[in-house]
Design brief:
single chain; 141 residues; mainly alpha; two-stranded parallel sheet
Length: 141
């Protein structure tokens, strides 16, 4: 049960600075870390700007149409497949990239048998070329 006037405290941490005139940049990074954490449903009280990977880049794009177009172009087929088949291939790809394209670690994290993971990667991502997966990986990490 949540109390009526309960507040949630969270802290954003920007990159270290060498000179006092860089403090504003670090403060803006800390604020961006909090915004990204809120949008991505990250859990925890402390969010580090340096640990947010692709979200760091995305947080600097002001025109969301650019992001929508890029995502649609790169992952549109995968999204449509998940919608039509009520699948979870997007989640699988996200986890696969988060685990440095290590199928074994991804399978363990997602509680999948390794053969299921290999099947998903080999048979269901054929619509994405190897170059597209590499481009997504480079952008994310």
């Amino acid at each position: 049960m949540q109390r009526e006037n309960e507040m949630k405290l969270c802290v954003g941490v920007g990159n270290s600075i060498a000179y006092p005139d860089e403090a504003k940049r670090s403060r803006n990074e800390a604020a961006a870390a909090i915004r990204v954490a809120a949008v991505t449903d990250m859990q925890g009280p402390v969010y580090f700007y340096k640990d947010q990977g692709i979200y760091t880049l995305i947080s600097h794009v002001d025109d969301t149409r650019v992001l929508d177009e890029y995502v649609g172009k790169q992952l549109g087929k995968l999204f449509r497949y998940d919608e039509i088949n009520t699948g979870n291939l997007c989640e699988t790809l996200e986890n696969y990239l988060a685990h440095d394209c290590n199928a074994k670690k991804t399978a363990e994290t997602m509680f999948l048998h390794r053969n299921t993971m290999n099947y998903r990667l080999k048979n269901n991502y054929v619509e994405l070329s190897e170059e597209q997966v590499l481009e997504i990986y480079k952008a994310a990490y």
